[in-house]
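Please decode residue identities from the backbone states below.
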């Protein structure tokens, strides 16, 4: 049994832990980064600290077992990321609060390469201004939690007038692709990526899916 409910500030640590535990295609972040705190500070801080009203958690046996974190205005996230989150992360690195080892440096360089090679699908933000991220803890996957989280988040986007929402994933996230497609998302664009070579068997395709909510 599980219950989907709004995020509370007390959930922050549990959500960040789950973010780190599912960052690598649903598995822990450690194959590509040295320090999970760095990943959470860069990736999760926006949703928990700047737009918590669009964060929903699934609780199972009294613990956070899934989350969906939404953003109603992706341009705002980019602004806050550049002005506040990234400087805070860089300060943390310079002050030695985060461990930056070989894995992190390699991943950082690959990310840069990814941007230069334009391997990230482009999304027309005027049609799909919102976005979301969803993850469920490995032991409780396949019980309907992901679908319920997504439906809850999409209903909130719709009720609050967000006209369209996108998600970024890969062709290796099969359950996620299936869920997005069956919930009405359509594939906007797919591009091959070299970000995960040596870490994941076979080729990986980045995918952007979008859904319009202005009906
Ligand atoms: C994707 C994820 C959030 C879905 O959550 P969940 O609670 O497992 O999802 P649900 O139980 O609600 O539904 C899973 C659906 O995927 C289907 N599915 C499961 N494995 C699948 C696979 N390998 N290929 C295709 N479909 C699959 C299930 O049949 C089910 O579909 P149905 O409702 O039509 O029967 C969760 O599995 C997860 O965290 N996965 C790992 C990380 C990830 O991919 N996150 C998304 C990042 S974009």
């Amino acid at each position: 049994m599980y219950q989907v409910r709004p995020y509370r500030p007390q959930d922050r640590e549990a959500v960040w832990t789950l973010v780190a535990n599912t960052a690598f295609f649903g598995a822990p972040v450690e194959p590509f980064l040295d320090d999970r705190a760095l990943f959470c500070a860069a990736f999760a801080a926006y949703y928990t600290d700047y737009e918590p009203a669009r964060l929903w958690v699934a609780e199972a046996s009294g613990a956070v077992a899934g989350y969906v974190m939404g953003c109603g205005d992706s341009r705002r996230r980019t602004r806050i990321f550049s002005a506040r989150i990234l400087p805070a992360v860089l300060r943390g690195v310079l002050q030695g609060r985060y461990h930056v080892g070989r894995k992190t440096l390699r991943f950082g360089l690959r990310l840069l390469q990814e941007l230069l090679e334009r391997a990230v699908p482009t999304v027309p933000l005027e049609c799909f201004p919102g976005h979301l991220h969803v993850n469920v803890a490995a032991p409780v996957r396949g019980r309907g939690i992901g679908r319920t989280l997504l439906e809850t988040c999409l209903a909130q986007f719709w009720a609050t007038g967000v006209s369209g929402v996108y998600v970024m994933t890969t062709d290796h996230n099969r359950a996620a692709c299936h869920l997005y497609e069956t919930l009405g998302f359509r594939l906007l664009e797919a591009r091959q990526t070299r970000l995960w070579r040596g870490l994941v068997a076979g080729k990986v395709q980045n995918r952007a899916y979008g859904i319009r909510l202005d009906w």
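Observation: The radius of gyration is 17 Å.
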